[in-house]
Amino acid sequence: MSLIDEGIQSGLDLMFDTYSYHCGFSVINVLYPEWFLARVPEVYSDTWALFRLRAELELIVALLGFGYENVQVLNTKHPALKKYNGMFLKDIADARGLSQFENFLDVTEKSEGRAVVLNHRYSSQENIKKLMKHPASLYMTDALVYEEGAQNPASFGCYPRFLQFARDFDLLSLESCVSKMTGAVAKRFNLPNRGLLKEGYYADITIFDWANIQDLNTRSQTDRRPAGIESVYINGRQVLEKGKARPGATYGRVIRAGGA
Hints:
By secondary structure, the protein is α+β, with helices and mostly antiparallel strands.
């Protein structure tokens, strides 16, 4: 954080976003070096290039401790591999009877590098707590919801997890935590009439139980609804009632910075 703090102290207008999970959301190509990606697809049949790639990946494991067991494939993006959605690369390789490297390469090639992954050990709980408390931080989810495959847990539990951490670890007040995910974000991105409970503003409201709000996701079950949320209103119309979505209640719309 020293670079950000130094920049702020020097007079720069700096803020940053953060999320409450220690897994990073991306596609499988992000795990490959630039020199390899520059030669796709013919590089998949280059014996020397594959030897070099394997050596580099083994070095990463040795130096960083990050390996195939830390990469969870949410969507393989290939019909023949669909049954492995939600599994970790190591477990997929074991199930297919392939080496870890062969499986990694095959999933990448079959999906044309588009397999959706979560990279675990991307951060740590201690880092999350430090970032949450920083006065220049704002909250986001780093997540998308997909029609197929396993889901990113942050799509369901990111904000509840922020509130849970703020409460359980006494990181910051309820008011400060809520502000970092609502009003402060709207102000930063110049979203008029959003983010505050105020007359004349759009009524985007979440009613939750501060004492019981909790993210319920696990490593294997990543689409669980959180506990402690009673009702949600979007643009003044209720979309969640007693913890359950109301059928056909789609009242949201795209919001652009600088406009309503």
